[in-house]
Amino acid sequence: MAKDVEAVVESGEYGTRDYTDPPPAPLVDLEELTKWSLYRAVIAEFVATMLFLYVTVATVIGYKHQSDPNINLTDAACSGVGILGIAWAFGGMIFILVYCTAGVSGGHINPAVTFGLFLARKVSLVRAVLYIIAQCLGAICGCGLVKGFQRAYYVRYGGGANSLSAGYSKGTGVGAEIIGTFVLVYTVFSATDPKRNARDSHIPVLAPLPIGFAVFMVHLATIPITGTGINPARSLGAAVVYNHETTWHNHWIFWVGPFAGAAFACIFHQYILRASAAKAHGSSYRR
Predict the structure, then answer these.
(1) 53-73, pLDDT tens digit by residue?
(2) Domain covering 28-280, topology
(3) b/e map 151-174, b = 16+ CB within 10 Å
């Protein structure tokens, strides 16, 4: 009996599935450039990243101001949100913005996420490049808004820019960014997996929720090390607007780490975890 089942699997006759994998996106799809849906998605990514940077960097600046030992605060409740509050700001904003933009652009809001989905052939090269440009420009504009509203505090407290904390090596910084981005992008793949969505369709799970929690948890772990990048647009936007020598010294960490982490997450999910599904379903399963 076991041999019969094995033979059926290997022959591809066992192929009934309750989900459908979308076909791979074309590597270069120039036809997309003629569609309004692409530009609408690019605008959504720009606005979402701008709002993300405005709220999160403003939270960081506000915390540093409120916790400044040179500032006399009579109310203990005004001592600042702390690292926990900053992590909630980042995770909460990702949850909100992914929820709002998922139906338009997919809610990437992060070049590393876009890069990972491109490697998995979820988006074309044209869309990926335009998304990353829009995300970086949106991040710069978001940080520009914070500087415009809080110019004195913005400069005094470092502009919310990422930097490698004292006592940590560059290798540690890169490693923290790789692992943090791996957690985020792996969560994105898992939360949007059509197989999982079909299997758990009876459970009212909102995909943006685990993605937001992933961002929250990663910030708790890596804020003390790098200030938590895991998003090259976030790091670039703060560095460009603050534009201090210290922000550029190890800036490469916040690009190499996230892109490497996204690549590892793509390989792990698409070619290790999903490859097991291909073996179980025989030749009927194709990526």
Answers:
(1) 999 999 999 888 777 666 655
(2) Glycerol uptake facilitator protein (1.20.1080)
(3) eebbeebbbbbbbbeeeeeeeebb
